[in-house]
């Protein structure tokens, strides 16, 4: 997957949660703020676990670095 394809999905207005399916069939759900995903030229840092902050927003507890060429598809949730 190209960085532009992933960025296009992240920048959709309004943001729609989606699932990233990887070549090993693992999945990563991007449920909340698109700013939780950092996209580079060949890799993306993706959120794995969220927590509710006392003030209300969702915070990311754990991340995973993924090679963009391992992303097979983006699925609606």
Write down the CATH topology: SH3 type barrels
* Total domain modules: 1
CATH-scheme architecture: Roll
How much strand? over 45%
Identify the strand order in the major beta sheet.
Answer: 2-1-6
Which sequence of SSEs, written as H and E, runs from N to C? HEEEEEE
Provide the helix percentage.
Answer: 10-25%
What does this structure look like?
The protein is mostly beta strands. It has a single domain, classed as SH3 type barrels, CATH 2.30.30. The protein is built from 1 helix and 6 strands; from the N terminus they run H-E-E-E-E-E-E. The protein has a 3-stranded antiparallel β-sheet with strand order 2-1-6, with no helix packed on it. The radius of gyration is 12 Å and the shape is globular.
Fold topology:
Elements: H1 3-10, E1 18-22, E2 27-30, E3 38-39, E4 43-52, E5 58-67, E6 71-76
Antiparallel strand pairs: 1-2, 1-6, 3-4, 4-5
Q: TL;DR?
A:
The protein is mainly beta and 77 residues long.
Q: What are the salient characteristics of this protein?
A:
single chain, 77 residues, mainly beta, SH3 type barrels, three-stranded antiparallel sheet, 1 helix
């Amino acid at each position: 997957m190209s960085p532009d394809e992933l960025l296009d999905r992240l920048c959709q207005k309004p943001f729609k949660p989606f699932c990233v399916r990887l070549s090993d069939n693992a999945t990563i759900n991007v449920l909340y703020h698109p700013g939780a995903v950092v996209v580079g030229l060949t890799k993306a840092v993706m959120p794995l676990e969220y927590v509710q902050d006392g003030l209300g927003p969702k915070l990311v507890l754990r991340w995973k670095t993924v090679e963009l060429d391992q992303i097979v598809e983006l699925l609606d949730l």
